[in-house]
Write a structure and sequence with these properties.
The protein is α+β, with helices and mostly antiparallel strands and 141 residues long. It has one domain. Helix content is 27%, strand content 17%. The chain is built from three helices and four strands. The strands form two sheets. Strands 1-2 form a two-stranded antiparallel ribbon. The radius of gyration is 16 Å and the shape is globular. The two termini are 16 Å apart.
């Protein structure tokens, strides 16, 4: 999750915060809920490999554009970020997965809708891919 920016000014403002720059994010993320490794709290997935994609593009990993305003440029490259992360994970074992759960909340939940089918295609139809959007259904998108 992490919300969206809706126009060039809101994306420019976001770029200077932890929601818009990996340089400003916390260095450590805690896995909780469906990502927890505690079998009492997460009996179904506690022993699965887990990856948390750090969200900073402001468009649910779906954009591929830039906005120029004089001397400044705002890059909205969420789709490229998604593609690069998945390509990297495929080489690190994702390509051998038998079961995959893609999940996200809020803007990340919307990203789940956007990328679920593509992830299944990238895995060649061999893995069972399930997708769970948590609070990511926006009627206006």
């Amino acid at each position: 999750g992490g919300g969206w920016c809706n126009d060039a000014p809101s994306c420019a403002a976001r770029a200077g915060t932890r929601r818009g720059s990996t340089r400003l994010m916390s260095k450590l993320e805690v896995f909780s809920g469906v990502l927890s490794n505690d079998p009492a709290r997460n009996p179904d997935f506690y022993n699965w490999n887990r990856v948390k994609l750090r969200y900073c593009d402001g468009g649910s990993f779906a954009g591929d554009s830039e906005f120029r305003n004089g001397s400044s440029v705002i890059y909205m490259r969420g789709q490229r970020i998604w593609d690069a992360i998945i390509a990297d994970l495929l080489t690190k074992g994702l390509a051998k997965a038998e079961k995959v759960l893609l999940s996200g909340c809020s803007a990340g939940g919307l990203a789940t809708f956007f990328h679920c089918d593509n992830l299944g295609e990238l895995l060649g139809g061999v893995a069972t891919v399930k997708c769970m959007s948590d609070a990511g259904f926006f009627l206006d998108v």
